[in-house]
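User: Run a structure prediction on this.
Assistant: Running it now.
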Amino acid sequence: IVYEAATADIGDINMIDPFHLQKYDISAVNYNRDIENFPILKSILERIGTNIYKSPTDMAISKTKDGILDDSVIVEAAKQEVIRRYFRYKKENLLGIIEKDVVDRTEKLMLKLGVDESYRKVVLAARDCAEQGYNQGKGYKSLFCGTAIEIDDGKKIITGKNSPLLHSESAAVINSLKHLALVPDNIHLIPEDIIQRIRKMKRNVGGSVNPSLDVSEMLIALSVSIGNNSYSGRCIEKIPLLNGCEIHTTHIPNIGDEEGIRNLKMNLTTDALSSQRIYLRT
């Protein structure tokens, strides 16, 4: 199912290998492309005087299962990967990269697995965070974004809201690092004057309509702030703990957010809201 989700944009599916069934009277699952092209390979092999394969399955007997010690871990990882693919396709469909049927195909795979969007813990947490921002009158220029990060092996979910100073992704990363480094919430890791200087440069030099800091900019500002307080250094030391963490945001991240999150090696998904303000965010 994960393979079908990963290739939903090109329509690949898993099928019973008819060649294997005919030859050995054993049902084996294989990829449709292998099955469709096996007659071509078989013809080529016969022409060169060898025919060692009787079916596509013969060509690649998988020994992966021999290395699986806990099937429940594999099943859970598969569910999470299919959901991540689903959110990716939703975003790409919204941007006009793929057709809606790819999203629908992946959603059907999720139904087979008995999961939906909410199965990914950070999804509802990010949406609730954005709603809280709206109710509290936070956000920036009537745009209310929420981001959630799952840390401590899923034991804790940390959120962040957007503001005139930081994107919601940046706020969530900072809040996560503070939690991991045991830094009190009332401690400001990055002096506001540093943030304001960056915002001023983005507005005056780059013409940015939203000069708040994305993740890439925030990480640079955090490293610069080490000289101002020891807490920043402690938080930077905890950055490796974000590797592999799940993160979800309610809006389409900009390039700086995506690159920063990718550098942190986190698994990103997004609701890809259709507000025009989001597309103009830089």
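The first strand starts at residue 14 and ends at 16.
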